[in-house]
Model the fold of this input.
Amino acid sequence: MATTPTALRPYKLPKRRHWAVSFALRQPLGAAGLLVILVMAFGGIFAEFVAPYDPLDIDFGAMLAAPSIEHPFGTDAFGRDILSRVIYGARTALTIGFLSSFIGCTLGAAIGIASAFFGGRTDMIVQRFIDVLLSFPIIVLALVVVAMIGRAPLFGIDLNLILAIAIPIMPKVERVVRAAALSIREMAYIDAARAAGFSNARIIFRHMAPNVAAPYLIMLTAYIAQAILLEASLSFLGLGVTEPTAAWGLMLSGNASDFYREAPWMILFPGLAISAAVFAFNLFGDSLRDWLDPKLKA
Amino acid sequence: MQPQTAEAAAPRVDGAGDDLLRVEDLHVHFVTSRGVVRAVEGISYSVRRGEIVALVGESGCGKSVSSLAIMRLLAKPAGRVVGGRIMFEGRDLLTLDEDEMREIRGRDISIIFQEPMTSLNPVLTIGLQIMEPLTIHLGMTASEARARATELLRLVGITDPERRLDQYPHQFSGGMRQRVMIAIGLACNPKLIIADEPTTALDVTIQAQILELMKDLARRLNIALVIITHNLGIVARYADRVNVMYAARVVEQGTADDVFLRPRHPYAIGLMRSVPRLDRPRGLRLETIEGLPPNLLDPPTGCRFAARCAFRIDACAQDPALREIEPAHRSACFRAEEFSSGALAEATTERARGRPDAAVSDAAPILGVRDLAKHFTVSSRSVIFGGETRVVKAVNGVSFDIRPGETLGLVGESGCGKTTVGRLVLKLEQPTSGAIEFEGRDIAGLAGPELQRTRQRIQVIFQDPYSSLNPRMTIGQIIAEPMLVHRIVPNAKAARERAAELLEKVGLFAYMAERYPHEMSGGQRQRVGIARALAMRPSFIVCDEPVSALDVSIQGQVINLLEDLQREFGLTYLFIAHDLAVVRHISTRVAVMYLGRVMEIADRDAIYAQPLHPYTKALLDAAPVPDPLVERARAPRALGGEIPSPLRPPGGCVFHTRCPIASEECKRAVPELREAAPGHFVACIKV
Done:
């Protein structure tokens, strides 16, 4: 540039990086969370190859064994390897966590968008219904659902348990998505779509839904953590996953509580796994929110 | 309100070399994830004591950024001043530390922003907000500050200041809030006020009041004023000196007379010519500056304007310096002298030749609106337990006809119901009463498949090109979607082809179909909106403020495009706008609305040459004209008062509260729209 004086004050330019690298640098905690999630997902998916023992293998010769080379996390009252059970537990936790968060968030988003789009009386009625759901503590609501609808196991996973966890998630997501959808409904492109004579279904699915994708994704991630925690709580209370399936919450309950003085590893490692998973999903969800929020981008 | 003649008290500033503010070779960069935006590149200008200086330019030219740099309020960490000096009373503001700078902000220099709705804190009283700088900067006690605040409110023309000090911002109208902002700006007797688009968000009659007030105060209190605006009319009326900016640089600098009457830079010349003007006979076609401003992420080398310039020569590949053409008149063009000698003048008017008006048939009206009304219920209490419900009569007894091929301009200030009329015609709202006859059928009660069929015939172009396109769809999908839904084309391939064809029709390129809306400029998006409307092959288009969000040079392009398309496809327009000059340019007939009612309808030439209704006259008076000589000759005739709340419209003639000729009689009955001259209808008992 001919006229640019040479005396401009110098400053450093940020380097252009791959988005994954820049995510890791800008959101180091989120990246750490993602790493933990990926490790857990890997362990859960390939549990057969990763876990040293079969999680259901009872070995009365090694009951309540302390952590050692053979059993790094020790064994439980039936001599089952705790490391293997924690790894298989990741499979249970992630499956239930993801499925129930997905069902809860999707249902919530659908109701939220529809409620915002139709507005008026429909909105009023839907919102009062949501108010009722929100007025229950999340664990109590899940308990009620489990107690009412019983069990329907499929491949070792209780579908009703997933539903029981999804239902308390739904109203929270519904509120957030409705708020976002209300502002989108006022956008001129929605008016344009109505003026073009499009059906309500098309406007909702084609024009409104894609525009609430960002809050939906963020909540999907964050509520996986909630769902894992809820599953653990329900299992602990005996309403969730049943023996002998390996599940973190279940490992904390039962005779684990009888032996925690002699064998603290029985509750230490599954407890740590729950905390790590919840912490990782929360960190990643928070970072994802910052990352997807255009206002926070330079 | 005390709109005394501002000129009387005005000590016109002479060239006394007493610079209050001197910006020297300022450079501002924004570091973004996509690269460095060179928002301001080497601009210099000065402001003398008591002088009104304007920075004019289109969006993104760096005019606001340069003023934020003066206040050191650039968005951090992205924005930074990378070169130059800002000398204020002999001190370089860029070298002061943050504490010293805070002393200057609000005390010596204050700033007034565009949005009066968001620049006041809604949870604090007006009084607290005015008193805050007084106690902080001047160390006044609460009672001293309150006395001063009362005085300030009186100064900016707010009646009953004692009581209003204890009110909250929501109890003030937009114009009143801007007066409060001015009062806050004046609080510490600043030496300089920077006003960033101070009236852009306001209605034209309120705009005139605010500008008169600012000018009057600046003269009386000897405050220098920097007005940043894109509105050339405002500049002509109020500025002593003008800096025209283009693409981060000042391209022309001089007194208002120099710049308006003897522009010496092709961009300034083009800008003056591309605005439709009320003080000149209506041209057949607007002159425009073709093309778009350069992207400041990657600006071209040489003259920034060269790509859009009709007078480009080889030398323009070099950077032109801002140099003095006449005393105190600078231009950054190699050929500036040739403009002075008149050698290049002819070439510019050449392009103004146009085609005549579209043929208006005498056939039956395509759209007839009879006694249309839309009332909104505003409930102030619970929905279930009833309570007090109030009714806003947004549209009240509106009737008009539009013949095929015609353009009816619908003008009025905000809240007058013009947009609601458009939405009723589009069937986006259900009318409370009245009939809408379209192509011989009443569509007011239409629903289901018949409504969908009608919707293909009536299309819409919206004001805001940013919110009118779905950000998650490509341009091609946006245009093709209606064609596929209504099976106007047999398959997706045909839809793509026709979308490409439409893009070219509206002056874009077929390859742009792959892009997303955020990858396009405002003007380009507006063209996409037009292409989407055309995709349905409509016969009638409601244009709701289609150019008011666009820059001046782009505005002209879009207006010309609308006119060309009207001729080509035999379209009929309902053109809703608040800009009287734009409406005059495009319309065949004009309807003026005020508080939900039509005040006057007539042929375009009749209404502008002989406005009958006092409101139409007031609107025309308030509209600034980009010519300093014309403006100075006009008396300041700002219409007093505020637009009444549509919740509590005045009884009788709705305009009687502000009308200069109103009498007792006007408060009694609502005047009927009657034919005062052939084809000229007016709703006033006094004419």
In short: The two ends of chain B are 28 Å apart (CA to CA). The mean pLDDT of chain B is 84. Chain B is about 30% helix and 25% strand.
